[in-house]
Amino acid sequence: MEAEQLQFIFSLFSFVGLIGVLFYLVFEKAKSDEKSDQIEILEVKVSSLQDYVYDLDERIEANKILEQGGIKQKIIEMYKEGKESMVIENALNIPRAKIEMVIKFHELKLKNENSLKSVD
After folding, report:
1. Neighbouring C-alpha atoms within 13 Å toward the C-beta of 110
2. Three-class HEC string of the chain
3. From CA 43, how far away is CA 23, in angstroms rounded?
4. CB 81, CB 87: distance < 8 Å
5. Would you say 94 and 71 are in contact if contact means Cβ atoms under 8 Å apart?
6. 0.85 exceeded by pTM
7. Which string of b and e fits 52-61 if b means at least 16 CB within 10 Å?
């Protein structure tokens, strides 16, 4: 009888150990899945940040081109020809906001020149 009790106790401890190992495996799998989800989220964030940085680089390049003056003259010439800002945007591959800014500054400059001429 004592052997049967020892065998029952060993079987019980084995069963408890097996349940513990299974619980540990399930717990580790859940942690692994959570880490995988976090990695995917971070990859999406990094991707969007890379896109944002790329857009900023393009804007900086566009600003450098605008500052050179040659593009400003082309925008002003196309505006004087009567072309709309959308057509200028497509032709020069420059954002519409920049085109409108150049046109407004050009108009302000013309108004200032006209007002100075009328004062003289």
Report:
1. 8
2. CHHHHHHHHHHHHHHHHHHHHHHHHHHHHHHHHHHHHHHHHHHHHHHHHHHHHHHHHHHHHHHHHHHCCHHHHHHHHHHHCCCCHHHHHHHHCCCHHHHHHHHHHHHHHHHHHHHHHHHC
3. 30
4. no
5. yes
6. no
7. eeeeeeeeee
Residue in the block written with tokens 């420059």: 94
Give Cβ neighbours of residue 72 (< 8 Å, ≥ 6 apart). 66, 102
Q: How many Cβ atoms from other residues are within 10 Å of residue 65's Cβ? A: 16
Q: Over the stretch 40-75, which tens digit does the pLDDT of each residue have?
A: 999 999 999 998 888 888 777 766 765 666 778 888
Which residue, chain included where needed, has tokens 């006209």? 114
What pLDDT does 73 receive?
Answer: 83
Of the candidates 82, 88, 72, 103, the residue with the CA atom closest to the CA atom of residue 111:
103
Task: Give the number of other CB atoms < 10 A from CB of residue 100.
Answer: 15
Tokens 């020069």 correspond to 92
